[in-house]
Amino acid sequence: MSESCLFCRIVAKEIPVTYAYEDEQVVAFDDINQQAPIHILVIPKRHIRGAGALTAQDNDLVGHIFQVVNQLAVKNGVAATGYRIVTNNGDAAGQSVDHLHFHLLGGRDLGWPPG
Ligand code: 5GP
Ligand code: ZN
Questions:
Q1: For 48-86, how does the pLDDT look when each residue is reduced to its tens digit (9 = 90+)?
Q2: Which of 15, 17, 62, 95 could be joined to 88 by an S-S link, Cβ 3.0–4.6 Å?
Q3: Model pLDDT, residue 1
Q4: Whose CA is nearest to atom 19 of ligand 1?
Q5: pLDDT at 3
């Protein structure tokens, strides 16, 4: 855990969030700044700086995260209509929290390309 990392503090339950899912490896919670009717963040409990810091050792974790995202899409009623999974990596992509997270967005038509 990084004391200065916002999402590590959420994992440690030091900051209240609306939980969507939790298990030994991941936590999912509503984004505080909802960009769509469904906007959930799925994060590993372990601090990983971002997608660009993933290694082969994380393959199972990433696969698991996608399973969780897909289950949340079903649970939140967007599996049939469609949804987007986004991870921003680095400044130019707009990553604002340096702890790996996947946005699950759905419940409206999502424009393309993203900004
Ligand atoms: P990024 O911009 O790094 O791709 O995504 C970070 C996301 O974290 C943003 O969508 C932002 O709204 C969300 N976020 C930042 N601080 C908090 C917080 O304290 N609680 C919750 N639930 N979401 C947060
Ligand atoms: Zn962290």
A1: 999 999 999 999 999 999 999 999 999 999 999 999 999
A2: 95
A3: 67
A4: 32
A5: 73
**Residue 62 Cα distances to 33, 94, 96, 112, angstroms:** 24, 21, 20, 25
Pocket lined around ligand 1, Cβ cut-off 6 Å: 6, 15, 17, 29-33, 41, 88, 94-97, 101
Percentage of residues in the chain having pLDDT higher than 90: 96
Q: Which CATH class, in words, describes the domain spanning 6-106?
A: alpha beta
d(CA 35, CA 47): 24
* Domain range annotation of the chain: 6-106
Quote the ligand 2 centre to 12 CA distance (angstroms). 10
Please say whether the dihedral angle defined by the alpha carbons of residues 62, 64, 58 and 102, taken in this order, is positive or negative. positive
C-alpha span between 60 and 49 (Å, rounded): 17
Ligand 1 atom 21: residue of nearest CA: 32
**d(C-alpha 114, C-alpha 61), whole Å:** 26
